[in-house]
Amino acid sequence: MNIIVCIKQVPAKDAPLAIAGNWIKESDIGFEMNEPDSYALEEALRLKEKHGGEVIALSMGPERVKQTIKEALAKGADRGILIADDNFAQLDPLGSAKALASAIKKEKADLVLTGLQSDDHGFGQTGVLLAALLDRPHATIIMAIDVEGDKMKLKRELEAGWFQHLECPLPAVLSIQSGINKVRYATLKGIMAAKKKEIATMTRESFGIQHEPTQKIEKIYVPTKTKKNRIPHWHSERSGNQARRKTQVRSAGALTMKILVITELRQGKWNSASFETLAAAQQIAADTSSTISAAVIGKGVAAFADELGTKNVAEVLQVEHDLLEAYTPDGYCVALSQVIHAGKPDLVLFPHTYQVRDFAPKLAASLGKGMIGDCIGYRHASGKLVFVRQMFQGKTAADVIFQGAAPWFASFQSGAFRADLLVAHPSGKAPVNRIAVTLTPDQIRTKPLDLFKEAKSAVDLTQAPLIVAIGRGIKAPENIPQAEALAKAIGGEIAASRPICDEGWLPMERQIGSSGQTVAPKLYLALGISGAIQHVVGMKGARTIVAINKDPNAPIFEIADYGVVADIFEIMPALTEALEKAKSA
Ligand SMILES: Cc1cc2nc3c(=O)[nH]c(=O)nc-3n(C[C@H](O)[C@H](O)[C@H](O)COP(=O)(O)OP(=O)(O)OC[C@H]3O[C@@H](n4cnc5c(N)ncnc54)[C@H](O)[C@@H]3O)c2cc1C
């Protein structure tokens, strides 16, 4: 089995981020393999060990990236390819994918693997775009791969603890979810062997790619803080300003668009993020004198279409087909590209769900367009829409604009807009138009199978009034009893961020976040948790959030009511002791 695994080199996790315009100063920082890609590499090596063949590590960027390719070779990859490009950081996701796809086309690969997203740009689109450009079936957020002859049985992660099996023919492209395996270290023998392995160097120019950038990062910056909370430094308490981001700053101007909102149903119910995106569309429409169409897709969705019609939209598109009953990326892309061709919207908006990550970049690419994914807000200035998204794992924000002609595609992060601010239709009901799409079974290459949850949860954290949650700051499993002692002293439940459960340090049922439980306790004490959006969506409903983190720029402080910049190993025992004393007093 011949596997190409795409690996990216990114700034090291602890590298200080000095911003310089629309990128960071790279001169004084260290770089490392993008952690999500290391899981894809490990999976490729395991598949090779089981089925034979070769693993090629493919990367793109300046000369320093060879170091990351060498690391992959030392772990067991057979050869490497570098697409040398000093301006890689400025490339849009479609531009990067075109270069990677050109190199992949020169090889005979059965399988292309990528990580789910990069720790720097965080676009999370490469795998899906490669599938579009290589015209291969794909699947994302993959947690298990079983190769059976010329097809694979896959386990794909869905939101809120759900999974799905699916069948996918080979050749294919898969985006691997972090935590799927335990990543190996390079051995000394591997490091020595890597010295003899080949790294071929190519350039983007040599591929003769035609590409007009579809989006541009105008600037990156540390987000402005607008909500006051307290960030006392341990030992020397002081007040400071840390805040929820306030990004929906708008001003009037001349930009009139047809906006199309693609809503999402999940197992026969609304995915509520759909209404947040509809609320975003209503705000953009009000700012720009634009009109909104809202589409609902599936089979037997008339009641959902009627419900959408009660919101303030110009029309509802009811996109129905037998083959759309179960979600498939191929089916959705074929159907929605017809809807877009017919309706000619300028701006297509999606909620940034796991399903949207799986098909929307491909839909945009099939129309020659790019997508600005995972936005947390927008600005409308001088007739231009500026989208705001996070980069460097939430440590910075970025202003991103579309380039080139419409249609433009964007998705909004869960929680970025308030569904309760949705405006109802003035006359009570917008017209519902049934859209007929042409779709045949041969156009759908993956076969969705059963939906399931893993072993039933023994603990119901959703009802817990007090939660002590630990993140990677806890460092090692032997430190967890310190957090458990604190949880006991408070009388609360212990919970964790995903990496802790991936490592098996706590059971999966203790995981908080988009793939775990959603909780709303009176108190959420976050210990050594950075505050990645996938974690925050699971706990932002807590009445009071107290965060302890030694990095003052950790994104968790944006939503914390109280923050302590400190080492958890100083705080945990001191707080436990104080609580025990208070209880016995
Ligand atoms: C599709 C998808 C789904 C996901 N689902 C989830 C999910 O459901 N739940 C979830 O949690 N994540 C999820 N993730 C992963 C998420 O993106 C983050 O990678 C994860 O939440 C990070 O966990 P963390 O904060 O523990 O680790 P890190 O991001 O590594 O942060 C560790 C933090 O600890 C701090 N720290 C280190 N040492 C100390 C110390 N001694 N004292 C104080 N602070 C310290 C550091 O400053 C840092 O901020 C998902 C990702 C994807 C792509």
What does this structure look like?
By secondary structure, this protein is of the alpha/beta class. It has three domains: 3-207, 3-Layer(aba) Sandwich (Rossmann fold); 215-445, Rossmann fold, CATH 3.40.50.620; 461-584, Rossmann fold (3-Layer(aba) Sandwich). It has a ten-stranded mixed beta sheet with strand order 13-7-6-1-8-12-9-10-11-28, sandwiched between helices. A ten-stranded mixed beta sheet has the order 14-25-24-23-26-22-17-20-21-27, sandwiched between helices. The chain has a five-stranded parallel beta sheet with strand order 30-29-31-32-33. The structure holds flavin-adenine dinucleotide.
The CATH homologous superfamily of the largest domain is named HUPs
Could you list the spans in which at least 5 consecutive residues all have pLDDT below 50?
228-252
The average pLDDT value, as a whole number, equals: 93
CATH architecture name of the largest domain:
3-Layer(aba) Sandwich
What is the CATH top level name of the largest domain?
A: Alpha Beta
Radius of gyration: 24 Å
Short description:
The protein has 585 residues and is of the alpha/beta class. It contains 14 helices and 33 strands. Helix 3 (93-105) packs across helix 4 (126-134) and helix 4 (126-134) packs across helix 9 (354-366).
How would you summarize the topology of this molecule?
Layout: E1 3-6, E2 9-11, E3 19-20, E4 23-24, E5 31-33, H1 35-51, E6 55-61, H2 66-75, E7 79-84, H3 93-105, E8 111-115, H4 126-134, E9 138-148, E10 151-157, E11 162-169, E12 172-176, H5 188-194, E13 199-203, E14 215-221, E15 228-229, E16 240-241, E17 258-262, E18 265-266, E19 269-270, H6 273-288, E20 291-298, H7 302-308, E21 315-320, H8 329-343, E22 347-351, H9 354-366, E23 371-381, E24 384-391, E25 396-402, E26 408-412, E27 432-436, E28 447-453, E29 466-470, H10 480-490, E30 493-496, H11 498-502, E31 523-527, H12 533-536, E32 544-549, H13 556-559, E33 562-565, H14 568-584
Helix pairs in contact: 2-5, 3-4, 4-9, 8-9, 10-14
The site of flavin-adenine dinucleotide has 30 residues, from helix 11, helix 12, strand 32 and helix 14.
